[in-house]
Amino acid sequence: MLKTLHTICRAGIASEPPPASDDALRVSDVLQNRIRGILGRALCIRHVDAGSCNGCELEIHALSNPVYNIEGLGIKFVASPRHADMLLVTGPVSRNMEVALRRTYDATPDPKIVVAIGDCGCTGGVFGENYASVGRVANVIPVNVAVPGCPSSPNRILAGILTAISPPGVK
Amino acid sequence: MELQYWIDQSTPLPGAPGVRRLDVTVDTWLACATDVAASGGRLFALWADCAGEATVFAALISEPIVLLLALELPGTTATYPSLAEIFPAAARMQRAAADLCGVRARDFDQRPWLRHAAWPVDYLPLASETRPAAGREPAIDQYSFVRVSGDGVHEIPVGPVHAGVIEPGHFRFSVVGEKVLKLEERLGYVHKGIEQRFSDLSANEGQRLAARVSGDSAVAYSWAYCQALEGIVGAAVPTRATWLRALALECERIANHLGDLGALGNDAGFAFGLSQLSRLKELWLRAIETALGQRYLMDFVVPGGVFTNPSMDNLVALAACAAKIATEAIVIRGIYDEHAGVRDRFADAGIVTPALAKQLSLCGLAGRASAQLHDLRADMPCAPYTDLRVRTFTSRDGDVAARVAVRFDELNESARLIDEIVHKLPNGAFRVVFAQPAEAGMGVGIIEGWRGPVLVALRIAADGRIQRCHPHDPSWQNWPVLEHAIIGNIVPDFPLINKSFNLSYSGHDL
Questions:
Q1: In 3D, which of A105, A89, A85, A101 has the Cα closest to residue A31?
Q2: CB–CB of B260/B223 below 8 Å?
Q3: What is the enclosing helix (H) or strand (E) of B348?
Q4: Which domains does chain A have, with CATH numbers?
Q5: Which residues does residue B184 pair with via DSSP β-bridges, in sequence order?
Q6: CB contact under 8 A, A7 and B285
Q7: Confidence check: pLDDT of A34 > 70
Q8: B19-50 pLDDT per residue, tens
Q9: Is B218 near chain A, with CB under 8 Å?
Q10: Which of A14, A49, A96 sits opposite B191 (nearest CB)?
Q11: Taking burial as the number of CB atoms within 10 A of a residue's CB, which of A58, A135, B94, B397 is the most buried?
């Protein structure tokens, strides 16, 4: 127990300030400001891997580490789409995941936001479209914010999430 | 017959040292596999190549040799003898080969594996000339899971969309109360046509795709790919580049072990482990980015060498960071070891006995935690591992605690290797101009990634285009073993046991 406490004290607080929102990442805006005010203080995210290489998942994991400390911003990952305000989707969408992604989207209550993560989520990336891949997330469900990168860095993913819940033009 | 008899008839293949090709007939296919098994050998990979003649390849490993059996078949409708009786791990690979190329093993289990309902049954992605029209809404298929019946038995279906930030797959648990009687996996959800996509690319472009077969093993895959390609072309890679590749591979190993060891603590209800180790992982990724240019080294290993030449100052800082992390990890290991709650969850959970591990060709770090002491870096070293003398770690316990212990040991060893690499790093070029290959050929690369041995088999045409590229992930061997590891455990221990293996869905589904 003492060693645990000692380690915690020695590590101190590692959290860094969050990045500013970035309108360049915005694809479409759906939220009324009143709703934005409510979501902004307690956002629930459901992550869906729709066919990713798992690189973006590693960086989404990093959001929960003490440095990015996403829970400190009032944002948390939830276990069911029914509890979620936002879907964070990595792609490309494989055809074997197409129905599952659609169903997850349908199960998420309105108003909902979709953030596509990574080059593959934005464009289909290196995998493209073929018999087994539908390509970008927007080919299957409507996307509000798209964050490129291979993989997207935690700072960019966080900027994308914050952009989605900020009104356009506000930093 | 002895294994040596078959080795004598085989011919060396370009690429990794020790890989040899042996053309077999339907009769000698099984005989050779039996002899390899009798000599302690295991199945490394199995795939079919139907671009041209239909050929089934089985890579069998008996250190220090990888014997690549090539069985030519008369067309894609042909069947061949199943290797599953000798190597149970072959079963799913054979089903995948049937889905993609049509060639079927004579086995009792003829269910599709990678093909769900997204493309028609008569479409063979790697053999058919015409590609199916896109835009059709895929149907939901009915997969025939093996049913368990009896008083009080019920099923828990989980996935493909899981409750955490993880990849998709379906698990069908048959349970009584909390106890798991049987787990059946259904994978293939992230199948995105990687192998067909390879054949759209030139040999030099293939590295980018290879690195993204499984993002957590980008260095292992891109190195194995380049090893195969450079072997075919006969290109000499600068010594400094091979050392930097090894540096990147050990960086990747540390990053993944830090992530998983933290998550394992969390799954045992000890959030302290996750917050401390994920903090160290972030520190580590930033050190990698400073030294090598990327947090995750997706495009560091390129044909002809490595992408950037790191400065000596940054490399020394990287080695210092690795040493600092290794020291801190030892403290956290001590805390895990002394924490009664963590010990209680780790010890005796998800046991894979050494005998079962051997029978099922369990490989990589999970294999080493079940007394299967194999590591390509030590057993069949390519440069620079020939000069590095990697220490390997093992346990006979085969439980979650053993896999945790092996990971901590390997993390420490990788930090030592990074220090040694940085201090012995030869001078010279870090990359040579890599010409587009001008001759057809086939090569195989094998690299020990953090999860286990990765294989990339590459066949290129005379115009430098890829005809067939098969990347093999160690998860193919280890997924079926997970079904055994969970038997008799309780459902709430599944995430913990699963995480202790942390197998790749993307690397498996392709």
A1: A85
A2: no
A3: none
A4: 20-164 (3.40.50.12280)
A5: B172
A6: no
A7: no
A8: 999 999 988 999 999 999 999 999 999 999 98
A9: yes
A10: A96
A11: B94
Is some CB atom of chain A closer than 8 A to the CB atom of B39? no
Whether B228 contacts chain A with CB within 8 A: no
Interface with A, mutate which of B101, B170, B192 (most A CBs under 10 A): B192
CB atoms under 10 Å from CB of A104, counted, come to 22
Taking CB atoms and an 8 Å cutoff, what residues of chain B touch A87?
none
B312 touches chain A (CB under 8 A): no
pLDDT at A74: 87
CA B161 to chain centre: 22
Q: What is the token pair recorded at A83?
A: 């509890």
CB contact under 8 A, A130 and B197: yes
Report CB contact under 8 Å: B295, A97. Answer: no
Q: Does B208 sit within 8 Å of A132, measured CB to CB?
A: no
Pairing state of beta strands B301-302 and B305-306? antiparallel
Rounded to 5°, angle at Cα B451 from B446 and B455? 20
- What is the Cα gyration radius of chain B? 22
What is the biggest distance separating any 2 CA atoms in chain B, rounded to whole angstroms?
Answer: 70
Out of B123, B137, B215, the one facing A54 most closely (by C-beta) is B215
Q: How many CB atoms lie within 10 A of CB B146?
A: 9
DSSP string, A20-48: PP-GGGBS-----HHHHHHHHHSEEEEEE
User: What ipTM does the predicted assembly reach?
Assistant: 0.91
Using DSSP, state whether B26 is helix, strand or coil.
helix
Residue with tokens 């942390």: B502
Mean pLDDT for A92-107 is 92
Classify B349 as helix, strand or coil.
Answer: coil
Which residues have a Cβ under 8 Å from the Cβ of A110 and sit 6 or more positions away? none
Contact B298 A151 (CB under 8 A): yes
Cβ contact B360:B477 at 8 Å: yes
pTM: 0.93
To the nearest whole Å, the CA of B465 is away from the closest chain A CA by 17
Contact A130 B196 (CB under 8 A): yes
Whether B278 contacts chain A with CB within 8 A: yes
Q: Look at chain B and count its residues.
A: 510
Mean pLDDT in residue range A31-44: 73
Q: Which residue among B188, B214, B331 places its CB closest to the CB of A54? A: B214
Cβ-in-10-Å burial (0-12, 13-18, 19+) of A27 comes to middle
* Cβ contact, residue pair B190, A64, below 8 Å: no
**Within a 10 A sphere around the Cβ of B18, how many other Cβ atoms?**
20
What residues of chain B score a pLDDT lower than 70? 1, 133-139
* Residue that the structure tokens 């149970």 belong to: B88
Instruction: Identify the structural domains of chain B with CATH numbers, from first to last.
Output: 3-106 (3.30.460.80), 153-186 (no CATH), 194-509 (1.10.645.10)
* Residue B471 · residue B445 · CB < 8 Å: no
- How far apart CA B171 and CA B163 sit, in angstroms, is 13
Q: Is the dihedral of CA A38, A43, A46, A52 positive or negative?
A: positive
The partner residue sitting opposite B506, judged by closest CB among A54, A96, A131, is A54
